[in-house]
Write a structure and sequence with these properties.
Chain A is of the alpha/beta class and 197 residues long. Chain A folds into 2 domains: 49 residues, Helicase, Ruva Protein, domain 3 (Orthogonal Bundle), CATH 1.10.8; 90 residues, Dna Topoisomerase Vi A Subunit, Chain: A, domain 2, CATH 3.40.1360.10. Chain A has 8 helices and 6 strands, in the order H-H-H-E-E-H-E-H-E-H-E-H-E-H. Chain A is globular, with a radius of gyration of 21 Å. With 249 residues, chain B is of the alpha+beta class. The chains are: A alpha/beta (197), B alpha+beta (249).
Chain lengths: 197, 249
């Protein structure tokens, strides 16, 4: 249909999450039909992001400055660190706006079958921060999967020597969820972590 | 082509944005892979956790196709094991050994029963460890590398067995093996039929025994190392942090 440049552009879009060949074609068509209003700003934004984005040396977040704006924010509690698997998880927690401490991105979870070992995780900066003695609590916000739980147990044992409080996000019935439609595993976890009211 | 069977989910890895490739172990079909459509969806994710016992349905156009899995949960092994580091370590080790050692689409009903006993006893990690050692002995036997722990390879006696030859996999009595004790693998009491609850040292000896033959025969035959999760379980037990561990939550 289009020239090879357009096909290449569609191919690049189709590789992005959430987009298939059809939606990539629609997006590219929209960009090309309005080059000044849509294509040029996108090119400028992509160039700027590619030029300035870096991984925060402290927490592993993506930002245009290193340390990132979350690590630089003086209003955030330095004694509270939330450990997450990916930057997407960090951004999800930030969207909720409920965590007022700092973060640490592990960059993965231990996996027996995929062969992910502690050496492949972004652990060294976390251990350095804990050595400073300022941190009093670590919140493990890892996926509720076998691999996520294995990583949580590994971290709780590894970080015990620093004498910090280690907590974990609770598990159970989601907001707006009914018990009838919940799976047995979630119900078991919810019952296990019940609390007095 | 289609079949229905209970199966233990050994592994599920993402395939594309929404699907999974799952590998399950069933009694009649053995280790069998299949595609799970929308397996990464939020409402399906709890089902496709490694270790879960599922009622599986597999369909394909031809027998040698990858095929498509659908399932219902029979026993939520994964979520029950998650609070205990010991139970998770046993589960990870058992699943990685089964996934790595079992050939595809070959039934091994005795090994399936052994793995089923491991996941059924995960609430008591010491019992699950005992079952894991038995599962690995059965697995070795099913793969053609059976151990003979019933009589002494030297004298033929059936009592006072204390060692296993790391070369032949046959038991050796305490008297016959005394001279070569340093070179032989210790045979723990629970593998000799002792009824008492095995100690941590016995369990570590059991894991060392089966680990040696799994590494040499089952995995060594295809030039692969013993899975990291299986090695980590032995190190964890040898480090005596297994049975005195406290639950995470």
């Amino acid at each position: 249909m289009g020239g090879p440049e357009i096909e290449q552009l569609i191919g690049q879009f189709a590789r992005l999450p959430g987009l298939g060949p059809r939606s990539a074609r629609r997006a590219v068509l929209r960009l090309l039909q309005q080059p000044e209003a849509r294509l040029a700003p996108l090119i400028r934004a992509l160039e700027a992001a590619a030029k300035t984005t870096r991984v925060c040396g402290l927490c592993g977040n993506l930002d245009s400055v290193d340390p990132c704006s979350l690590c630089r924010d003086p209003r955030r509690e330095t004694g509270l660190i939330c450990v997450v698997e990916t930057v997407a998880d960090l951004w999800a927690l930030e969207r909720a706006g409920v965590h007022r401490g700092r973060y640490h991105v592990l960059g993965g979870v231990l996996s027996a079958l995929a062969g992910t070992t502690p050496e492949t995780l972004n652990l060294t900066p976390l251990l350095s921060r804990l050595s400073g003695g300022e941190v009093r609590e670590i919140v493990l916000a890892l996926p509720v999967t076998v691999d996520g739980a294995t990583t949580a147990h590994f971290l709780s044992e590894r970080l015990r020597e620093f004498g910090v409080v280690i907590t974990q996000l609770s598990q159970g019935v989601p907001m707006g969820g009914s018990l009838e439609t919940l799976d047995e595993g979630t119900l078991a976890a919810a019952l296990r972590t019940r609390r007095a009211v | 082509m289609d079949w229905e069977s209970p199966g233990i989910l050994l592994m599920a890895r993402p395939f594309g944005e929404a699907d999974l490739i799952a590998s399950a172990f069933t009694e009649a079909e053995g280790r069998h892979a299949g595609l799970v459509r929308h397996g990464q969806a939020r409402r399906h994710a709890p089902l496709w956790q490694a270790g879960n016992l599922l009622h599986l349905r597999w369909t394909a156009r031809l027998a040698d196709n990858l095929g498509v899995y659908s399932a219902e949960l029979a026993h939520p092994t994964a979520s029950l094991a998650m609070p205990s580091a010991g139970a998770l370590a046993v589960l990870n080790a058992a699943l990685s050994v089964a996934e790595g050692a079992l050939p595809e689409r070959t039934p091994h009903p005795r090994a399936f029963a052994g793995l089923l006993r491991v996941i059924a006893t995960l609430a008591e990690p010491a019992r699950a460890l005992t079952e894991l050692v038995w599962f690995e002995i059965v697995l070795l036997s099913e793969l053609g590398f059976g151990l003979d722990l019933t009589r002494c390879a030297v004298s033929g006696q059936t009592t006072d067995l204390a060692f296993v030859s790391p070369r032949s996999g046959r038991a050796v009595s305490a008297e016959a093996g005394a001279e070569w004790a340093a070179r032989l693998l210790p045979l723990p009491g629970f593998l000799r039929g002792a009824n008492a609850m095995p100690s941590e040292a016995d369990l570590a000896a059991g894991l060392r025994l089966t680990g040696h033959f799994l590494a040499r025969d089952a995995f060594g035959a295809s030039h692969r190392p013993l899975p990291a999760a299986r090695c980590a379980l032995y190190e964890r037990l040898a480090g005596t942090i297994f049975l005195d561990e406290t639950d995470h939550d």
